């Protein structure tokens, strides 16, 4: 049943010329949920996430709390939907803290050096959340790829939006920070946000996600709890792999194990 605070994709479709990148997709996700979008390369995950964020022209509707996101004023939309792009590069040597402060822009905090107390606190919290406080005055161009990834995540967190859309947020992170960021995103969800994460890591998706959306060739091949979606027949059909499945500390363990021959 669709609730008033749900995030709803209603017949969302993306095409470029005559090429359909995302077939009409419909789903509803509640706030308080961590959802993982998985699927092979080219399945349409980034395109779907960008369409949900209103960053690519699409047909159909995206509703948040019953409101059509496309009809929201831009600032309101930016306060409601925070977005972490894939492989984002910042080319200017801005201090880490100033880049994260850009997340407050939709709230009116235009100048990172003259933030209101609430904006300043949100930036400090986001810095702590991703363990970057010690690097806050370093130019972002002098950080490693994984550190920059955490800056991008912190910038989105600083917005404190009810919906957080993150495209491969853990892709360039070491194992410690992969776990740390997934746990952080799970905490954001438990605190009432809806978090939608695109990831190639089906193991961490199985462990942390409440819902999994599995894409194949631009369509929603499956959606549901990880145990149901990341099951052997679906993994074989969609990823052409066999996986090792077990439990550890009452949590699922899922490891891609062998390619299946065609
Ligand atoms: N600007 C574009 N012009 C033409 N085709 C595009 C464009 N952007 C994406 N595509 C195509 O759309 C399809 C979906 O791309 P998308 O980036 O959404 O896939 P993905 O599932 O996120 O892949 P990956 O896991 O490799 O990041 C791919 O076949 C891609 O080649």
Structural commentary:
The structure is a single chain. The protein is an alpha/beta fold and 262 residues long. The chain has a single domain, classed as Rossmann fold (3-Layer(aba) Sandwich). 32% of the residues lie in helices and 29% in strands. The strands form 3 sheets. A 6-stranded mixed β-sheet has the order 6-7-8-3-9-10, sandwiched between helices. The protein has a 4-stranded antiparallel β-sheet with strand order 2-1-4-5, covered by helices on one side. A hairpin with a 2-residue loop joins strand 11 (241-248) and strand 12. The longest helix has 16 residues, at 175-190. The N and C termini lie far apart (39 Å). 40% of the residues are buried. The mean pLDDT is 93. The structure holds adenosine-5'-triphosphate (ATP).
Draw up the topology in text.
Blueprint: E1 7-16, E2 19-29, E3 34-38, H1 45-52, E4 59-64, E5 67-68, H2 74-80, E6 81-84, H3 96-101, H4 117-129, H5 145-159, E7 163-167, H6 175-190, E8 194-198, H7 202-208, E9 211-216, E10 219-224, H8 226-229, H9 232-239, E11 241-248, E12 251-259
Parallel strand pairs: 3-8, 3-9, 6-7, 7-8
Antiparallel strand pairs: 1-2, 1-4, 4-5, 9-10, 11-12
The structure holds adenosine-5'-triphosphate.
Please supply descriptive tags for the structure shown above:
262 residues, alpha/beta, Rossmann fold, 9 helices, 12 strands, 32% helix, nucleotide-binding, ATP-binding, ATP binding, AAA+_ATPase
Q: How far from one another are the termini?
A: 39 Å
Q: Give the CATH architecture.
A: 3-Layer(aba) Sandwich
Structural class: alpha/beta
Helical element count?
9
Spans where pLDDT lies below 50 across 5 or more residues: none
Identify the strand order in the major beta sheet: 6-7-8-3-9-10
Q: According to CATH, what is the topology? A: Rossmann fold
**Element order, helices and strands?**
EEEHEEHEHHHEHEHEEHHEE
Q: Quick one: CATH superfamily?
A: P-loop containing nucleotide triphosphate hydrolases
Compute the gyration radius: what is it? 18 Å
Let me know the average pLDDT: 93
Structurally, the number of domains stands at 1
For the sheet with most strands, the description reads: 6 strands, mixed
Pfam family, one: ABC_tran
Family: Belongs to the ABC transporter superfamily.
Protein name: ABC transporter ATP-binding protein
GO molecular function: ATP binding
């Amino acid at each position: 049943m669709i609730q008033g605070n749900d995030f709803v994709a209603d017949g969302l479709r993306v095409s470029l010329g005559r090429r359909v990148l995302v077939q009409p997709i419909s789903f509803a996700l509640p706030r308080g949920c961590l959802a993982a979008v998985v699927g092979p390369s080219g399945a349409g995950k980034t395109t779907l996430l960008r369409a949900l964020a209103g960053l690519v022209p699409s047909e159909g509707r995206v509703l948040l709390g019953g409101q059509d996101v496309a009809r929201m004023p831009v600032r309101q939309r930016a306060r409601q939907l925070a977005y972490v792009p894939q492989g984002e590069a910042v080319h200017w040597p801005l201090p880490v803290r100033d880049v994260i402060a850009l997340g407050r822009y939709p709230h009116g905090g235009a100048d990172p050096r003259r933030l209101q107390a609430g904006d300043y606190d949100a930036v400090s919290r986001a810095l702590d959340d991703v363990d970057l406080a010690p690097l806050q005055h370093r130019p972002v161009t002098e950080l490693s790829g994984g550190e920059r990834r955490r800056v991008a995540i912190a910038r989105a967190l600083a917005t404190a939006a009810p919906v957080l859309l993150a495209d491969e947020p853990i892709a360039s992170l070491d194992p410690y920070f992969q776990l740390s960021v997934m746990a952080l995103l799970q905490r954001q969800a438990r605190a009432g946000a809806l978090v939608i994460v695109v990831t190639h890591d089906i193991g961490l998706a199985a462990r942390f996600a409440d819902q999994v959306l599995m894409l194949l060739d631009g369509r929603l091949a499956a959606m549901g709890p990880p145990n149901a979606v990341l099951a052997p027949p679906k993994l074989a059909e969609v990823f052409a792999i066999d996986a090792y499945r077990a439990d550890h500390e009452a949590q699922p363990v899922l490891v891609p194990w062998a390619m299946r021959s065609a």
